[in-house]
Design brief:
Length: 426
Amino acid sequence: MSGMDATGHIDDLGSFISASPSSYHAAAEVARRLGDAGYTTLDEAADWREVVRPGARLVLVRDGAVIGLALPADAGPATPFRVLGAHTDSPTFKLKPRPALSAHGWLQAGVEVYGGPIIASWFDRELEFAGRLVDTAGTVHLVRTGPFARIPHLAVHLDRDVNTSFAPDRQRDVQPILGVSGPDVLTHLARAGGLSSAGDVAGFDVVSVDSAAPARFGADGSLFAAARLDNLSSVHAGLTALVRAAPAGAIAVLAAFDHEEIGSESRSGAAGPLLSDVLERVSAALGGDRSDLARAIFGSWCLSADAGHAVHPNRPERHDPANRPVAGGGPLLKINANQRYTTDAVGAALWARTCEKAGVPFQEFVSNNAVPCGSTIGPITAVRIGIPTLDVGTPLLSMHSARELCHVDDPARLSAAAEVFFTGLP
């Protein structure tokens, strides 16, 4: 498997997840790690002709999104791109404006549902708040609280039907408790960001996350549980592959977007102009024109890397009867006839060759016809840029839970295949 150490990879994935409680922290952690690997930060306001050159290693952060680029030594204006696209956000709860609440002696925080979480899984966990504050001078502060809040269940004595009909109200039932006295949530966050008071905060984007550390477990130690495996498992796989790869004949690109869980329609989402702007500016900085960029895009590929579903042992009828990927069986090739995933026959053949060269197995995923299929940034990227795209990812159980699960071997296998993809198409 290209010399990959699955144990080392899963331990490092745990460290990466622990450092990335929000999309803003994830983008900053990717940029930090790439900086440590010799990557130069790109300034969107600068003239890129000064820094974009053959052999360059570059990284750009926009809000909760991050793009890393590794240019081969022979890069030119029509050099194609090999893009691994992923996303930094996860389903969660986001602090509302005026989040300080109190009721019946309890301090609480007002939150709004973000994306499509399994709401019941968030109850009775110690939650952390994390994200960014913007002070009155416009300076951004990344903040996190550590274990801080909890959404409490109603005791079974007060709801005898809780085990047969639990359906939490998305407004009434999900406002977490913080304590019985002390500062409100925004004051606490302001202090965590080095500010004097909540009055110094002019704006904030703050979400909740399960504060429990990632962990290996199971009878044979083969299981791994953590928050935000969807989709930090793919971001980390792309990051580690990019650091190891030595691109030849194409520009390797890691594009980790924000806001995928709510449709990707933002300046830092896949439906926005971020990736297309970066690819166009790189080609132009290398001396290209629109024709050169079109030639580069024609010869490019994008791996849309997002988590997928392993077969559930207690509910196998929810899966396709013939295509049932298992934990530990290798990364997924995700296929959908209605283009919810972008994989076609050419992409499937490319993935098969890539995994063969990487020495890793892979398995197909297709939805049960009676179960609606989710989607990814793949179709968005294909439509937005015109780049040929296929969908892959790590098989999970409990996707969109506060804490998801995978096999310890599968993230490393995805990274090994991504390295082959970045280094040279088979």
